[in-house]
Amino acid sequence: MAQLAAGRLADAETAVSAMSAADNDRLQNLCAGMVLNSMAASLCMAGRLAYCEALADRAIQMLKRSYLLTDAVMLHPVHILAAARLAQGKVGKAKQALADMLAIRCESPQDQAMVHGMAAALLQTEGNLRQAEAEYLSAARAWELANLGESAYAGAIYASLASLYLAERRNEDARRVLARALAIFDRPEGTVPMDRIRTLYVSGALHARLGEWMEAERDLSRAVELAEGEQRMDAFSLRVLLAGYAQALRKNGHRREARSIDARAATIPSASSSAAIVDMADIGNGARRRSK
Questions:
Q1: Quick check: helix, strand or coil at residue 144?
Q2: Is residue 91 within 8 Å of residue 122, measured between CB atoms?
Q3: What is the spatial distance between Cα 204 and Cα 150, in angstroms, rounded to a whole number?
Q4: Residue 245 contacts residue 220 (beta carbons within 8 Å)
Q5: Which SS3 state, helix, strand or coil, does residue 16 take?
Q6: Are 47 and 231 within 8 A, CB to CB?
Q7: Is 273 left (phi over 0), alpha (psi -120 to 50) or beta?
Q8: Which of 23, 64, 65, 173 is the most exposed place for a label (fewest CB within 10 A)?
């Protein structure tokens, strides 16, 4: 739709409402549902998670007029719904959406990768690191089978796997998968700033773990620079990133700069969320949570 392409989401939503009210045939419902799904995806990329969640749910309800919840056409909007809920810390509701995803017959490797990736993210959030690792590896294999092993989708899986390995103090495993993620996100095609920010943060955390503070400062500085203009960066993640950068600055003797970064971090709300960036404190504690 022209309104969606131009970024006029409210106009696009109005047009979809008119479309769905005009008729109730299968093709009309499919078109309206897919437009709502695209709108939800755009909102997710923009970090407007509550609106994203609402439109993904509308897309599902629209498609349910003509399709079963277990039909393949439902996978993408249900995936967006699960991702938006998890990003807002709604773990229980995200698990409900994942259950719906698992009930959908996924035949293509790309669809299977989406399901494995969402399952892994939820398991990692709950501290079930061993099961999360298995799901991340399954997702990575599925992206390879889909000929998307060097895509941003696969890069996000490798970055998440690296954060998991850091939580388990498997430093060499973390270094190995981080190298793949960094190689993917160093290419601008098909990537977004949040992918690079998160990967650079995890890389900085690994260097810090190994006492490589100059390298940690380098990566965290690059992450902070990217975060400056990133609207998707939630307050909690930004605070965590700045705290890590300040720590690296202090370790390298840049105390004045560290104090300036600390002061900036102190102005940011500290309430936790299901952020895409892992707190450095969690890196040491994650292994102890895995059996919960």
A1: helix
A2: yes
A3: 22
A4: yes
A5: helix
A6: yes
A7: beta
A8: 23
Q: 122 lies in a domain? A: no
Using CB atoms within 10 Å of the CB of residue 90, give its burial: 0 to 12 exposed, 13 to 18 middle, 19+ buried: middle
CA dist 45 and 40 (Å) reads 9
Residue 100 tokens read as: 């719906």
Handedness of CA 250, 255, 260, 263 (dihedral sign): positive
Whole-angstrom distance, CA of residue 111 vs CA of residue 186: 26
Residue 280 has pLDDT above 80, yes or no: no
Which of 65, 89, 105 is at the close of a domain? 105
pLDDT band at 186; cut points 50, 70, 90: confident
Rounded CA separation 100/140 (Å): 22
Residue at a domain's end among 105, 140, 174:
105
Amino acid at 54: A
pTM of the model: 0.83
